[in-house]
Amino acid sequence: MAPAAVVTSSEPVSTTVDKLPLSNGHDAKSQYQELDASKLTYTFTTNPRPVPDEESACAGTETICTDHMITASWDIVTGWSTPELRPYGPLSLMPTASVLHYATECFEGLKAYRGYDGKLRLFRPDCNARRMLLSSTRISLPAFDPRELERLILALMAVDGPRWLPRDRKGSFLYLRPTLIGTQPQLGVQAPRQALLFITASFMPRMDAPPGGMRLHTSPEDMVRAWVGGFGYAKVGANYGPSLLATQEARKRGFGQVLWLYGPEGYCTEAGASNFFVIWRTPASEGGRLQLVTAPLDDKLILDGVTRRSVLQLARERLAEELDVVERRYTIGEVLKASREGRLIESFAAGTAYFVCPVSAIHHRGEDIEIPMIKGEGGQYTSKLKNWMRDIMYGNEQHEWGVVVEEREQ
Amino acid sequence: MAPAAVVTSSEPVSTTVDKLPLSNGHDAKSQYQELDASKLTYTFTTNPRPVPDEESACAGTETICTDHMITASWDIVTGWSTPELRPYGPLSLMPTASVLHYATECFEGLKAYRGYDGKLRLFRPDCNARRMLLSSTRISLPAFDPRELERLILALMAVDGPRWLPRDRKGSFLYLRPTLIGTQPQLGVQAPRQALLFITASFMPRMDAPPGGMRLHTSPEDMVRAWVGGFGYAKVGANYGPSLLATQEARKRGFGQVLWLYGPEGYCTEAGASNFFVIWRTPASEGGRLQLVTAPLDDKLILDGVTRRSVLQLARERLAEELDVVERRYTIGEVLKASREGRLIESFAAGTAYFVCPVSAIHHRGEDIEIPMIKGEGGQYTSKLKNWMRDIMYGNEQHEWGVVVEEREQ
To answer: Above 0.90 for ipTM, yes or no?
Structure first.
């Protein structure tokens, strides 16, 4: 019964997750069950829905999901249930469920790409699975072997990929959302003893090329997204809800996202829920070098984005002769100064939802930074990086980051 | 059909909420409906459950709720639905619901007290209703008139109070949990266009007198609960889930709660999810004055607790000749120093769940602060404040803070 959802990438799925527990520390004799994708059961829908075109699927105020989802429940004593692929539908939660009160929740976002060669690919799903483990343990949800999560993600796309992302939709994608929530129906601030993992696949609009580029408004002085000692590096719900107020305010003023600054120095951290990059030339006195700059991971303020990581790797491998790749704290003041001095070359946001999205303007406390767009698109380095990534995602370039889904026969 | 759920307190329900929108700014002609408790509909359970005794109700890992709950849904276009009192049961949420991903959620906690005079009372429910509005708008959920929320809370207790908190259980309480969640089934980091308010009533264990007092462990240096510019003052889920990891660690070490410190100075903020108080004598060089000290509200790091506020008010009214009431930033270093110099008199945590709970020990980076307990209870001021509060809650003292629920005839 099990479909052949196999990792066919030449890249071995990482077998280590630094400093994170892969299991919950139970011994072999206990009744505790680990998450095990090989046990996945299949209950297919008897009522497959019509597959909408991409535009109409993204026009409404509800996300259109595919026919199926995968779920697995967890209990602190018995461990992980047998994962199930089953018809997509509502979840039943008690009003006292932990997730509804204490934000015991985390998620991942990745896309499945229908390649120009007809194949269906995920992009570095091992990175998402490992980060989900990191997020889960940060928010006191259970541990699991991330390879099992990766296999479940592949299994969902093996079933719903062929019909929902058909071979004639080359260059299109679906959005995958693994989510883990605390379900224990008990009030009181405590780590949940029960949880539910679910994975959905859905349509999502293309957001990587807004007309005129992405326009950013820096965060208000009295609002901070994440802080040292907090959880800005984890993909937990608690990072998102509190950010909406500033985003709404920025949108009212005609901006797309908030550029989140940190501390009295005004360090640049994230653009909306994406990582933020600038390309500038250092002052002549410092050598006039071209640099691709983004915030560092070591203070744990920002998300260790898969797109961010890939952009940095590609830039180091393929642009080393043209620019330096720099991960360091840098301030909005430095960006302003570079702009005034004509040294700010390009800027973009990078993440799964926004992919590589050119930034055309930043408003900061009365000052406007304009960043030139070329023919309505980003500058040459932004475009190069974006095209390289796209080629890997859609199979124009065979690369270990593109993991082919072995699709279930229809 | 509507029961007489009427505020019979002599205290007028506050008609102003500073700087907060009471409605969503729609004009009278729009189809938008405000939350309106007078429209409440009643669907009674046909299967009332046996009411357990308090001890067995609190023994398990699930919260036992009463027979009914109140729900009202909200849509950005049509506004608030007619609120419904209906049988308690599970909620149905789409896997893409905002609350499950982005922590668009907030809640309140208050208790209903069966008085020694047989009456059923809430304690300052207007304060909870107003804070819920503050939390809701902070987390980009809808506004409402807090008086309507207060009326709905009273209505639930009017129906379930007589059977679930019967007149022969004098001195007992039920726990009320109004909750508001974002339900819009759309992925993407945005303010939800749909939401659900629900109010439950349940059993909750008594936590105000743990054997030997509450033992606190200060927060790890690399973990911060809330920060200036954050949302520590709002009762949103995002404040709780991320705190669980440190709490679990503290419990493994034999402590009950975390004393959350802030900044390199180590300012004392909250004890677990409660406000934190110390009573000390200032050094002789500073007059040797007796002070009740707690963290201030102005930097928005801590919750504006109803118990905190009431303790401060009672202390100012009734203990003014004995001690000074001080709201200011103070550090763990000052507490340590007071302890070493024999000037630390008492300490307690204050909140709805823990009521006024004596603190007997604080562990801070290798040092132990011991705070004397008297006959296993808190010191004289802790006990005085607690007893005054209890007398108001349970009707031994007639006070405007005690709001009598006019119970529905059985």
So the answer is: yes
